[in-house]
Write a structure and sequence with these properties.
Elements: H1 2-6, H2 18-23, E1 27-31, E2 40-45, H3 47-52, H4 57-62, E3 80-88, E4 91-99
Length: about 120
């Protein structure tokens, strides 16, 4: 990102990772909430200025005025999508169950391919 900037480019990133935010020249916070309750400019300035802002939810989370607690118990899942014996790229005969009706995130390296389920 810094290399792109040094070449004279304007780099715009949508991110909530604080390390990325610290590296930014300027931050813009759109909100105050999601969907129809959002879409307004809540804050514009530096990371240091953001931490002092009283309206930004982002600032409240960064300064621990608001927190999302880890649940004491997790929902159990029963239903799943099972993919058996997948071999593609670096996957060698892998079988995996993906839970349904829960938040399930699967990530991979850049350049990985989509697998077609036929």
């Amino acid at each position: 990102m810094k290399s792109l900037q040094k070449q004279g480019n304007t780099v715009i990133i949508v991110e909530h990772d604080e390390d990325i935010m610290l590296a930014a020249d300027e931050l813009i916070d759109i909100g105050p909430e999601a969907g129809s309750l959002g879409g307004h400019l809540v804050f514009q300035g530096t990371h240091k200025e953001l931490l002092k802002d009283s309206e930004s939810f982002t600032a409240k989370y960064l300064t621990d005025k608001l927190r999302i607690e880890t649940p004491k118990t997790r929902r159990k899942w029963k239903e799943f999508l099972e993919v058996k014996n997948v071999s593609d790229n670096n996957l060698k005969n892998v079988t995996v169950k993906f839970p349904l009706n829960t938040l399930c995130c699967v990530t991979g390296v850049s350049g990985s391919r989509e697998i077609n389920f036929n």
